Each structure stands twice: as structure tokens, then as C-alpha cells.
Amino acid sequence: MLVQREEQINLLRDTFRSCERQRRGHVSLVTGAVGSGKTSVLESFGDWAATAGGRVLSAAGSRAERGLYLGVLGQLLHGARLGSEPATRVESLLREAVPPLPEPGGEGADGPAAPDRVWAPVLHGLFSTLLDLAEPGPLVLTVDDVHHADPASLHCLLYVARRLRHAPIMVVLTEARMLRPAHPHFRAELFSQPHFTRITLPPLTVEAIARLVDDDAEPAARETAERCLRMTGGNPLLTRALIEERLREEADEEPAPDAVLGDAFDQAVLGCLYRHEPAVRRVAQALAVLDRPAPTDLLGHLLDMVPESAAPAVRVLRTSGLLDQDRLRHPRIRRSILADMSAEERRGLHQRAAEVLHEHGVEPGTVAEHLVAAGWADAAWTVPVLHDAAGHALAAGRPDVATACLRLVSRADVDEEQRTATTAMLVSARWQVNPLAVNGHLGHLVDTARDTGWPAGTTLAAVPYLLWQGRVEEAGEAMAGCGGDEEQAHSATAGRLRAMQLLLALSHPDHLASARDTAGTPRAAGLTAGGYPPVQALTVLGAALTPTGEQDPVGGAEQLLHRHHAEDGALPLLAAPLLALLWAGRADRVAAWTAALLDRPAVRHTPVWRAVLRALRAEAALRLGDLPGAEQHARSALDDLPVAGWGVAAAGPLATLIACATESGWHAEAERWLAQTVPAGAFRTPLGLHYLAARARHHLALGRAHAATADLRRCGELMRAWGADVAGLVPWRLELARVQFAVGNKAHATQLLQEQLRVPYGVDERTRGRTLRLLATTAAPDHRRKLLSEAVNLLQGCGDRLELVRALGDTGQTLQRAGDSAQARLLVRRAYQLAQDCGASVLAQRLVRRDTGGLPAAPPVEPVEPEDGLSEAERRVAALAAQGHTNRQISSKLFITVSTVEQHLTRVYRKLDVKRRTDLPARLVAYAEPLPEEMQSAAS
């Protein structure tokens, strides 16, 4: 049985039995959309009828053979396998059947009696032959696609249909739904026969498709069936092709070298189209090009046809399952149709679509898509539309779309002012995709601005990209040119100019003094520009870089991120508050925010900002002690944007990678990253300080104390000269103290650490915890334990697990020397496990080798269920999910399957009473596992 066709086949079988029993004929017409399974139903019934005692003669109509005289009738009689005498008689009758024949069911040229006079003997003889064939048992005549049959054959079929009252002949025809009936007179007379039945084949239901997917119709099969129904509309031809692809993928068969993925479904779509009239295919192509709901009046305008002509084609496409309401049902269907069109056809239709949509007042972005696809901008109205569309695309975070529009404008015939404005927008768009691609445009833009007196629009557009390349003097010259215009000072560009001045000062802090002379402090600059978001963002960054206690950079950054994080075009705005959080010591918030932002769909269209977010996430992971995560994100940042494209910002991700490699003990790897070229201008930026500090750590790890000292002293000199002596940027005194300890200068190291704690507004919890840990090494035993206890609490609170490992290790060493070996081993064991979790295997092994006696084997202890009810495995999964890792990344890190990750998270959500992933960080903090009492008492 065919799926969901049992009722129709049973109806045909009942008709056959009635014909056999009553010796009375019948005509059945099976109708349905193209691909609905009419042929399968006909063949299935024919096979059954042949085994049930009937004689089956079959024929099929074809568009190519519609003009073949008596072609369908010849097929029927050829299959009869007549004896020599009947065959000779039939051949004689067919020779006498001389054309022309009137339209079946209509009248001849000489009136209704003319066909009977000419054809009566022939038709009577043929009918007599059929009666002879029906003598042993019912005769079944099946004609597939009767709408393509030749008129002469249809005339003969009507003659037979009129005489079935006392003849055991069953006629079964199939017909597809077309734009208009091919033989209206034939259909009208056929429908009027008393022994006529019309059988309709409906689309497949979910239940029917589930049976095709899996006979057991399990829930998984039903879900697949629902997806298939949404994609195919229940068309059996499309559905079977889709299931065939699925089964092939599940079988994991090796595709043939010339196989095309999805070829079965694509061919099924085209099969549906090419079996319809050309007008239906034209409407489908127009809908594929438009890719939007289109009323029939718009389609008619596009295809130069009256709307009344487009409406039937839309109905046919809807019936066949290709169309859902007024647009193509699925992108795969659209792709199949477009792939079948030639490039010239697509361009021509896109151009016509742009013209029609513009006339209908459609938004510029949609019109511009078609202009770009057509590569056409010759009409006067196209340039403003493309400009407008590019502006909206940039605001929506789609620089790729903006670039396509602006490239087309650049080829159009425009004046110099329009060309300059286009170049400015093109620099902004192309830079977000590939900064290396804007060098020529940027130089032209600066030269043009200089020659034309530094107009604000052109000039300010170039400033961020000049600063990215380290061309600070040119950026300063440009802003000075803008600022000299008195009219500009009170115009709408004042806020934008102020933002660029702040950007110059904060990205290259040697200009901070001049920025203060121009606009007061960064906080004052933020107030003078009111609510201009870029100025607000840079003001928050200024509060983190030069803290005075007047403004809370963490609160301001969080406000901006909450306000703008859902805006697709806001990524350039959010980099400043993210940096502010990082430099204010809130690496945990940076990790959470960057994870959320990287999940936004718009990020995939802006490789530069995606790379920036990944670099920030990498540095945050490093400060949280997650070495594998830091390395992964930093490498991804350089995959998105190679070192050469980073400009002076290359120091950022490189510094993270150097620090990761050094902490992991991979010194050769660190040397390879140090060998990458960093522009000299990078060391005029705050990110350059990150690089110097990372390089100093590497020097110290290799015993090059003098080189480490030089780098860190340079950091200190620059930060003091800039007035940006904030530990969240680089705690240079702390790092220099480590060097002094290494060379045995304990007094100088102690002095540096004490100075670090006294820096006003410049010491965050992480820096304070690290500083206290080092100071503890210089203190008496009793005071040492108090310092280490405070350091442990601070480092556990800020989330820096790597420094927490060192603090716990130092505490264990102190307890060991005091004779408390049991407590020492407990702390060292905890530190060792944390080090392994952080990926710091070198540090873990160092703990083993220290004078605590190593990590002696302890008797197995039953794991204690923590207060939140999470098992150790669930806790590890939850922690990684809270840090923003995807299920697949967690699977890779923990060497478990994605399914296991999902199961753990389901239990975590239930135990912690959370409903979404973003709630995990807060809940895990609330349930954070404290140090055991014995550890706290030991540390204190």
C-alpha cells in the first residue's frame, strides 16, 4: 500500500469489483498536484487489477507527444497483444481514421453530426475490439497524465465512456492540476457521465510522513516528519527526496566524486516545476529572486503580465507544496530554483525586481540587495538608494552588505563629494571585515580631507582607522583641523569630535594631557556631550584607566553593556566598557559578557569585532586562571584576524598567548609568539604594556632578570608619565618585585609590594591578593599565615584560580614547616587539583616537588555531596557553562560526549533551580564551595 493513498486505491478496487459483478463500466479520474503520487496509485491499482482477473491496457500522455495523432490510443492497443486477425482489423480501422478530428467533446466544422458521419465506423469497430477483450473479464484502460493526451485519442476515450453502461470496461485517468484545463470540452463531457468518479490525492499529513520515516512512528520520527512537512508542504515527491537524503546521511555513505549534496531534493523541486507550464516556472523564478512575500500585482508587474495571469500560477505552486502563502516554502527550494537559472537570467530578473520594488516604495535595503545582485547602478535613483542601504547596514552590524552596496556606487558616475562620502563609508565597512584592505582608501581619504580643509564628516570617519594603524600624528592633525572651525564647535558633529579626541587620548595615553587641556578630564568630556553613546563609553574607559574615585567604571560599564548589548551594530561601542571592566579588575564579568556577545548572530558578519571580543575573552580567561581557555580564544582571535591586520592592537592577543605559554612552561612556544612583528607604535598604547609585562614574565622564567627588569621599568615609566598608574592595566611593581625576589633583593621587593598596596584607586582584589601572597614570603611565620589567609580569600573571591593555587601552595608549605603535615597535605592536594583544572601542569608538578613531602597517597574517601547537591562531574560542567563555553567545547575539554554534557546541565538546572544558561554564574557564586573549615583554620 502507498502511504496515505489506501483510501483512493480501495475506492478503485471497489469500482473494479462492481464492474466485474454488474458487467457495467466506470470512469475514474485521479487528480492531484504534480508529484502527489498519481502515477504510483495508477500503477499499484493496475498491478492489483491484473492479478484480480482483469486485463489491463496502459498508456501515458506526454507534452512532447501531444501532437502525435492517436498516440495514446496506439499505446493502449499495442499493449493488448491482439491476435493476427483482430490486429489486422484494428490496423485497417486506424488507417481509416483520417484527421482532422474536432476538439473532444466539441463540434466539427459542419456541425455536431459531422464527426459521427466520418468517424462512426472507425469508433464502432475500435469499441467492438475492446468489448472482445473484455469478454473473459473486466478490461481496465489506464491513461496517466491524460491532460497531455492527443485530441484524437481523447475523442475515442469519450466514445467509450458514453457506452460503458453495459460494457465491463473500467477507464482510469490521472490528471495534474495545471494553470488551465488542457481540454475543457473533454473534461466537461467526462464529468457529466453518470458512471464517473473523481478521486483527489491530498498532501501527506505528519502521521503519513512519520510512517515513511519510521514504521514505528516514534516521537523522533514524528519530529522529523514535522520538519519535512514544513519544508515540503506534504508533496510526496519532495518528501521522499528529502527522506532519501536523510537516510543517505545516516548511512554515512561515501559520496561519489561527482555527487552534489542535496541533489535528490533539488531535482525533485525542478521536476515539479518543469512538469508545469512555463508561466508557472517564471513565477517561481520571480519569487526565488524576490525572496519575500509578493502579492500578485507585484509579480505581474515584475513579469510584465496582468495580475490575473499570475494568480493561477501562485495557486498551482501553493498546491504543489513549493509555496507557503505568498513566498517559497523553504530556502532549499529557493536555492534549487536559482541554481537552475543562468547568470544572465538572474541578473536580469534582479534588475527588474529592483526597479519594480523601488516603484512600489519598498525600503532601500531590499532594493539595494537586488541592485547588487544585478551589478547595476546606471539609473539616477540607484546611488541614493545604495548609500542609504549602506548606512543602514553599517548601523545593523552588516559591513559585508554595506561594502557590496558601496562598491557598486564607486563604479557609478558620481561627483567628487559623493565619491568622497562613499570612500569614507567604504573604509568603515571594509575595515570591519579586513583592516588590511583599507590602506589605499584610507590614504586617499586623508589626502582628500586635507585638500578640502578637513570637513568634519570625512575627517572624523578616518580617525579610528588611523589610530588602529598607529598613525597618531595624522589623526591629531585631522582633529585639529576639525576643531579649528568655530561653526563645528556647536554643530551636531561636536559629540563625534569629542569622542575622537577621547579615543586618541585613551588609545595613546601620551595624549591624555592635551585631551585634558582641550576638554578637561575624560569624565568632564562625557558630561559636555550629553547622552552621545560613544562619548559615554569612552568616559567609562577613562574612569578605569585614570581612576579618581569620582566615578564607578564597573557600574558605568555594566549599564552601557545592558543598554546596548542587544543592538546588532553596537559592537564598536561595547569594546570600551569591556576594556574598562578588565582594567577595573572584573575579568569574570568580561568573560560573561564576551561569551554572550559572541553568541549573537551579527558577530559572524564582523570578523574584526569578533576577533576583538575573543581577544578580550582570552585575556579575561588568563586572569581567571583558565590557561587552555585563554590560549584557545587568543588563537581564535588571530584566526579571525591575522597579526598583520591588528595594527598596534596586535600587542593584545600576542601578550595573552605569550603569558599562557610561559605559565604552561612552553617556552619555545612563547618565543615563537615573541618572534611575531609588533608595530613600534604598539608600545604607545595600553595594550603595549600588556605585551611588555608578558615578555618580562617570559624573560624571568628563562632566568633573564635584567631583561625582565628593563621591560617592567619601562611599563612603570610609561604609566606614571600617562597618569594611568592602575594595577588592572599592569601591576608593574608587583611583577618587578617578583624579579627582585628572583635575584635575592628581598628588601627592594618588599618596598615595591608595599608601594603597590598604596597606589590610590589602583589596586583591585586580584592585585591585592597577589601582592599579599608575595609579602607573606617576607613576613614572620605568624604574620605570614594571616597574610596568606587574606590572600586566599581575595583570590578565591575574584576567581583567579591560578594565583589561588600559589597561595594555597604557600600556605601548605608554611604549615609543613610549622609541623602540621596533615593540614599541609590537604591544602597542597587542593592546590594540585586546581592547577590541573587550570591547565598549569608545570605548576602542579612544582607543588609535588616542594618540601611538603609531595602528595602522599591518601585512603579513599567517600565524596561528600555539597550543599547545592551537585556532583563533582556536574560542578565541572556547570562551571565551564557559566564561563560561556558551548556544549561541544565542554565535551572536548572534559572528554565526554555532548549528550552527557546535556544530561549534566539538565540536572544542574533542576538542582540550582535555574531556567537558562545565563543564570548559572550568579547561582554558582551563591553556592560557591568554600574552603573547608580545616583549611581556613590552617590558613589563619
Written description of the protein model:
With 940 residues, the protein is mostly helical. Among the domains are: 6-200, P-loop containing nucleotide triphosphate hydrolases (Rossmann fold, 3-Layer(aba) Sandwich), CATH 3.40.50; 872-939, Arc Repressor Mutant, subunit A (Orthogonal Bundle). 65% of the residues lie in helices and 4% in strands. The protein contains 49 helices and seven strands. The strands form two sheets. Strands 2-3-4-1-5 form a five-stranded parallel beta sheet, sandwiched between helices. A two-stranded antiparallel sheet has the order 6-7. β3 (139-144), α6 (151-161) and β4 (169-176) form a beta-alpha-beta unit. α19 packs antiparallel against α20 and α20 packs antiparallel against α21 (439-451). The longest helix has 21 residues, at 113-133. The radius of gyration is 40 Å and the shape is elongated. The relative contact order is 0.04. Mean pLDDT is 85; it is low at 252-261, 519-530, 851-867 and 926-940.
